Every structure is written in C-alpha cells, then in structure tokens.
Amino acid sequence: KCEEILREALEVSKTAPVLIEARIDKDINVLPMVPAGKSITEPILEIEIDD
C-alpha cells in the first residue's frame, strides 16, 4: 500500500503540492527529526544506538 500511495503522490506532485500522512511507531527512529522545542535548523541527523 505504501508504494501505491507514493506513486500517486509523485504523480500528483507534478501539478500540485502533496502531503503524505504516515503513522510511525513511537519507538522507531526516523531521521532527520526535529527535537521538541528546537528549530528546524537544528535537526538530529544520526543516533548512536547502544547494543
């Protein structure tokens, strides 16, 4: 289903802005991310994960 939505969004984006809303589990890190209370100019680009 994600691939279908992305294909449709890419097609629509040729003539109009597109926003894709995706629900991500709170325990999954998606980068880059903007920390709470920080500016968009201060993104987190990588995370060190302790094994």
Automatic annotation (TrEMBL):
InterPro entries: THDP-binding
Descriptive protein name: Acetolactate synthase, large subunit
Species: human gut metagenome
